[in-house]
Amino acid sequence: MSSSKPKKVKRIRTKLEKRKRGRRILNGFIIFCIVCGLGVGAAGLTIIASIISSSTIVLSVEDFKSPESTIIYDSAGNEIATIGIENRINITYADLPECVVDAFVAVEDSRFFEHNGFDIPRFAKSALENLKSLSFAQGGSTLTMQMVKNTYFVTDEALAEKSIDRKVQEIYLSLKVEKLINKAKIFELYINKINFGGTARGIQAASKYYFGKDCSELTLVEAATMAGVINFPNVFNPYYNIDYATERRDEVLSLMKLHGYITEEEMEVAKKTKIEDLLVGYEEDLSSTKSDYLQSYVDEVLNEIEATTGEDPYTTAMRVYTAMDPRVQKTADNICRGDSFDFPDKYFQVGFAVVNNHNGEIVALGGGRGRTGQRVFSFATDARKQPGSSIKVILDYALAFEYAGITTAHVELDDKTTWAGSSFQVTNASGKYNGETKLQHALSASLNIPAVKLLRKVLNAVGNDDVIEYLKAIGYDANIAENFTEQYAIGGGGMQASPLQMAAAQAMLFNDGEYIEPHTIRRIEYVDGSQEPYVPEYQGVQVISPAAAWCIASMMEKNVSNDIYLGNVKAIKKSYPVYAKTGTSDWGTDGVKYGIPVAAAKDSWMNASTSQFTIGCWVGYDKPIKGKNTYIRTAVQQKNYPAKIDNRILNALEKSFGTPKAIKKPSDVTSVSHVLGTWPYMAAPEWCPKKYVTSGYCRKGKVSVTKWETPTIDENYEFTAHVVGNSGTGANVTCRWTDIDPNLPTVVESTTYKLKSGKKGKRLFSTTWIDGIVQYYVGVYEGNTLITTLSTSVNGDTLYLDLSSLSNGTHTLTLRGYHAYTIAPVQTSVVEQTITVHVSNWEPDVPPVDPGPESNPVSDTTETNEVSVITIE
To answer: How many angstroms separate the CA atoms of 177 and 174, rounded?
Structure first.
């Protein structure tokens, strides 16, 4: 706007004007009565007095204050939602630009700053017009009278009754108001109260509704547009009737020119501006949010406000500051809309939550697909789904490290077993059994039987009640926790949870075992100042030790990063450590009547963590629908939707918060060495081959390692030996010992064995690999010099003695017979026999006898028998 005209100063009454305003209300009212008396005579005065005396309105300045909306902000301070019965944000007179004051005064009350609440010339003119038309079309109301009318006689549902009674009361109350409040305050109260169309009430809400800006930034054209709207908000709303709105805007500009607020040039320039070029667009319901998907986060904020403060955010105006990250939430919104990737069908649902591990703040929520409206069902917070195997890290493994005294190198038997108290089999998803299984493999392959056996170890250590209290402490519903059964080990039975509950529980593992209740709110300020700002405090609860949390977390990282372990979590492998666990649950037989195959999957989870944040992610079908294939088919499983969602969220988190680092090993973690596969753990004896020694991390002071039990051999036996052939440099000697005790091992156990199920399974431990087996031995001596040692597994075997180290001639040899282990330094006492042999240097005609098996038959180094030392970083 170009003009040489100096900027007008907002008109606030001077002290002289205030003294003039202090004239008695009665003087002004007498003038009004005189005017009325001209029309109705003395009887009219009596009627007016009667109207005033019969009024039930008790005037109070507080009545003119308008209830504001509650505004919700994200973590960056951006407004994300306006909540309230009306969309209203109050401002002060000082916030108003001059053009706003000029526009409203020009069109609504040109002598506002001169009259005392009742403008006689304006009223008289209107009265004459009404008499001519025999109607109340012309009100002649001042801004003060309009404020009185909007406070005491008008609601959004009903207009003020057009009657002499109401007009008389308006005038009388306006005169009283001007005695109590100055003009600036009256204008402020008026401009904050009026209806601007849609759900916008007050100038500030209207500025955002129409032009997306603060009222202090309004231009002349925008101010004139809004001053024109209020006369008939539904008619002159430019979103509905742009032509009417433009025509009305031009009328306001003309009046501003008429009253000297703007120049001719300013008016013409303003009239040429198109209103539609200034509008920012709108939503049908401004008490809603910018997005139906964003609404899932706002709904959780509203629930939290009511739960923590007891206040209704629709009636108590607040400024609510939340932890919502705009980038991550926008990513969540795009996923739910289907902008990120295509979903298999319209029945397929999603729900996910993103939680800060260290303070419990919820930074984003994905409430589901196809959401409309406020406070509707959210698959992120309201849904309760069976978590399947995703619960294992939180329940079975974490508590086993806490109470059962295991290490990360633990071996569990994966073999046939039944559920406690029943004849029903516990099965793995594959339907197979693996035998002795390393814990890391059991976790990565998501084996059910080892998980159940870990939970049994926990229950043996602490009992059901402690597990129930643990489930409650980490945020699961009390009724679900109290119905705990062994089937919870694999996320079955009555175990159900929301994505938010799963995220918060798993986040505990990355917060040194401390659970913090998930929450959205950082701070609440009360607009009216009636209460101190509310800053919620969420105290963490130590539910397991830092060591137990770290041990399972470190194993989860290998799920993702170690290429020897297969699974869907490989799809979220990053350049930084990611920790994850998947889970699946099925319809069982419940879906058969809907055409769903028995045990077809309905829920799929992938809960992923970094050192900073945890994502609880569920996808699947909420309810079966006949003929609609509402189950997760193979093709859908291969799409790996949970990984797609987690990937996008992880990328958004990295952009907002930087690249996460690995979790730090706490001080209560220690490393313990033991013989692989032993339980209780046993320390490796000094003769144990290194490949059978392992070490794993565990909670300090909770793991016991017992001393290896050295084997023994019965001493009661006999030994005899005699030469059956002697020629040249060799001799054949037949030896007999007392038979080896049948209870002692004489055969090296295989790396596979027959399971209870009848199938073959892996064997990772055998004492025959540590101590060896027991064999027959004979030591051959000449004097005190050992010539050779022979062994055999056959009693009465004929052994060949190589005599090439002896000189030619006759020799008397001592044979010392005994039983001994092939590896462990354990043998019986020696029984001696003597023989005589002759040595000559010609070729012997006595064929050599096969010396029998190797002295250490457990030197198998095939890949299936290889057991390396485990080190977890």
So the answer is: 5
